[in-house]
Fold this protein.
Amino acid sequence: MRVSRSSLLSYSPMSSKQGKMPTSDPSGLYVGVELGGTKMVIASGTGGRSIAAREEVRTTDPDRTLHDVRAAIGTVANGRSIRAIGLASFGPIDLRTRSGRYGEILNTPKPGWSGVNILDTISLGRDVPVVIDTDVNAAVIAEKTWGAGREYDDVAYLTVGTGVGGGIWANGRLVHGANHPEIGHIRVPRQSEDNHVSSCPFHEDCLEGMASGTAVRERWGSGAETLGHLTVEATRLEAWYLARGIAGMCSVVPIDIVIIGGGLSKLPGLHAEVAMALDDASGLYPPVPFAEGGPVITRPVLGDDAGVLGAIELARFATRGSAETPG
């Protein structure tokens, strides 16, 4: 088992303490795994935007799901050697390389997954580099490299689905602190006429609790795809909360462009509504980006492939000896 222990702070999954980079077959494939709460996407490629093979596995209990993921890795390799594997996982996960729990799912509402070490399970018996980061960090890498963020220096990706998550690329690198960001748990003010009880089990009135797909279903009695005559009202309220979450995020790390993906991003007119709500949400402060008309609010160019393409890119950089920035 060969595990790369780094949180990709400089987009290089190999730490300086590991010495010589591992060798691997230059004709082999990179494999990316996007681990989601509903499904796992496993894909292979040689680098770049194209996918050679793709499989999906339904997310159930950890043992069954990860067994199926390991089998799918072999399927997408299709008999070719694997150069490296990149894992893009739902969170929270421990990305502290010296914690003794690196690669482990932390306290999560997903039944049975708390305490599961994704990295160790996927790495077991494999003599190739295996690296891990969050699904949203992988998505922001992909959109920065090939997608909507490629012309911008500082990029954020928000996914709004069952939960809310976010990743930031700023100053040529992913943004981490002691661990990965939890943008979905930024506290937001409550809209004065909204009586919804927060859907987040940890916080009252955080972005995930008020603007996730779970919150939409609980508030309106229907999923986003079947709101019918409630769609316009629901979209405006969704945009109201997302704008305030983005305002909070940009007060800490000013961003040029915010890419909003996930199931709720398909609500008609959502991105335009968020953009219109930003002036009021931010008070046009800080001046950069808000008083200058930013940040740009847009949808992903790569669609649902952003996460797994980013995972493949994580794998590709696991075999390189120096950090490189996309774009």
